[in-house]
């Protein structure tokens, strides 16, 4: 399955999206807000 980075500024929406994607079998990294997103993206290795 896909590796997906989810970014949201609402913790409830973030948890909902992450849970749904994980249950569908995807590997998910998440970031709350835009500031931590670049750091999370560097940990997401797509190769």
Keywords:
single chain, 47 residues, alpha+beta, two-stranded parallel ribbon, 2 helices, flat
Short description:
The protein has 47 residues and is α+β, with helices and mostly antiparallel strands. The chain is built from two helices and two strands. The longest helix has 13 residues, at 11-23.
Overall pLDDT confidence: 86
Strand content: 25-35%
What structural class do the secondary elements suggest? alpha+beta
Individual helix count? 2
- Unreliably modeled segments: none
Assembly form of the protein: single chain
N-to-C order of helices and strands: EHEH
In total, how many beta strands?
A: 2
- Helix amount: 40-55%
Note the topology:
Blueprint: E1 3-8, H1 11-23, E2 27-32, H2 37-43
Parallel strand pairs: 1-2
Structure description:
- By secondary structure, this protein is of the alpha+beta class.
- Helices cover 43% and strands 26% of the residues.
- It contains two helices and two strands, in the order βαβα.
- Helix 1 links the parallel strand 1 (3-8) and strand 2.
